[in-house]
Amino acid sequence: MHSLETNHIPPYANPMSCIKDTTRGCCFSADPAAGELSAVNCPGCHKLEVFDWMSDLPDPLAEHKIFEVQFKNTHKGFYQNDTGGDLKVGDIVAVESSPGHDIGIVSMGGGLVARQMRRTGFNPRGAEFPKIYRKAKPGDIEKWQEAIALEHQTMIRSRQIAASLGLNMKIGDVEYQADRAKAIFYYIADERVDFRQLIKVLAEQFRIRVEMRQIGARQEAGRIGGIAACGRELCCSTWINHFASVTIGAARHQEISLNPQKLAGQCGKLKCCLNYELDSYIDARRSMPKVNAPLEALDGSYHLVKTDIFNGVMWFSPDAHSAAIQIPVSVERVKKIQAMNKRGEKIDTIADSSIERPVAAEEPQLLNVVGEESITRFDKSGKGSGRSRRGGRNRGGGSSDAKPAGAPDASGRNNASPGRNASSGRGRHAPSEKNASQERSSAPGSSGGEQQGGSENRNRSRSRGGRNRGRGGRGGQGGGSPQGGAQGGQSQG
User: Fold this and answer.
1) Is the pLDDT of residue 336 over 80?
2) Which of 41, 442, 448, 450 is the most buried (most CB within 10 A)?
């Protein structure tokens, strides 16, 4: 069986290492020059942390030798200072243990220790306190962190052993002693568990003295810690030492909705805070009348819906199965109506004029200032832009560098052919054939043969242009069609 020590890497191997251990409430760091490990207290990282509200007052018990020392999570104890020197809160000390020694952090001293003893129910009379040996040395801190590094793996392995033995228990935490002579196994079990065989196997496996300590679900939640539904840290990990039983009757007295998901805490049990205001509600209920029957009036019977204990108002509804209509009635008027009903009399109405009904606040009206709530505001702009883009492509004729009609191209030919312009549809206003023929005939140096040949070409161009314009007319009116048909081309063809 390989040892767990081989997986441990000394924290001072890295000169920049600084490890914060929130279970102990301290930071481990290394001195790169000396290669020694040191530990520093971290205020605010402790479970059940104590605020010294008497720090600015003269303490008559300042020389008191009894200190409170904290270990892992919520584990604390009272120890006697036997060092011969002064100790203060936050000092890391070596204390007496059975067997061997342990390392802890001083969490309280002076007159607060006596108050803490009374609060936790510890009787100091006749008690023999274990001793504080000295402040922890670098060698003690190094062995302490080596023991801390074994705790998680030991807990996982112990769970596997307990499952193999068929024990109905859950090992929630393991706390090693600083000298690794003993380990405390915290477990949860719903029934009595015979773990004698488990202790033997754990002692042989880890070569330590084993102590089994049973805890409840609330204590386990306090050791783990967390944030409650109210947004604050769990009460069981900040200040609660003794857990009183919480029943569902506490929720009924306070008229809280009996929803198990809202009434249960992170431990799975009823929230401890249900008991905080329970006594105030019970005292206030003593002055409230007991309504076991509906109130009788001339306009009908009224059934109790809810009670505002601290304001002294009771709410009634005319329908026993619906709370849509609720009428507030003061406690004095309810007592008066009950006395009349016992005499066989009925009141005109139970409505109490002395109680002002709350006026519902007017809901704020949302005004359309910028028109952002319109769902189709983007669709309108999109359709317009798309229409303009398509129309621009069809009407524009494609190229932005198109040459004007009548301009010669690179080969010297005239590009103002009426048939070509009419068929291609590359311009909204193509030059007329008559104007083109007049320009050719009036050109200087032209002969009669050329004019005759030009007239024949013009005739052929008219026939072709008419056919092209006819196709464009059948496809649709306007020069924006892909065939470039002119308006009324069908009649001209």
Assistant:
1) yes
2) 41
Measured torsion, CA atoms of residues 247, 252, 258, 264, in degrees rounded to the nearest 10: -30
Q: Evaluate whether 87 touches 67 at the Cβ level (below 8 Å).
A: yes
Which H or E element spans position 147? helix 138-149
Pairing mode, strands 209-214 and 295-297: unpaired
Q: What are phi and psi of 402, to 5 degrees?
A: -65, 145
With a cut of 80, say whether residue 125 has pLDDT above it: yes
Q: For residue 91, count CB atoms less than 10 angstroms from its CB and return exposed for 0-12, middle for 13-18, buried for 19 or more.
A: buried
Counting beta carbons within 10 angstroms of the beta carbon of residue 178, is it exposed (0 to 12), middle (13 to 18) or buried (19 or more)?
A: buried
CA distance 97 to 183: 12
Mean pLDDT on 379-391: 53
Phi–psi pair at 236, nearest 5 degrees: -70, -15
The one-character DSSP state at 265 is -
Q: Where do the DSSP E strands lie in 309-445?
A: 313-317, 327-330
d(CA 338, CA 290): 10
Length of the chain: 493
26: tokens are 């301290």
Strands 170-176 and 131-135 come out as unpaired
* Cα–Cα distance list, 484 to 245, 391, 392, 398, 457 (Å): 93, 13, 14, 13, 22
156: its two tokens: 């996982």
pLDDT, tens only, 265-274: 999 999 999 9
Rg over alpha carbons for the chain, rounded to the nearest Å, is: 47
Q: What is the pLDDT of residue 491?
A: 40
Q: In the structure encoding, which two tokens stand for residue 8, read together?
A: 């441990």
Are 275 and 299 in contact by the 8 Å Cβ rule? The answer is no
Give the list of residues 6+ apart from residue 425 with CB closer than 8 angstroms, or none: 397, 472, 479, 480, 481, 482, 483, 484, 485
Select from 228, 220, 269, 268 the least CA-distant residue to 247: 269
Which one-letter DSSP state was computed for residue 95? Answer: E
DSSP state, 12? G
β-pair partners for 304: 316
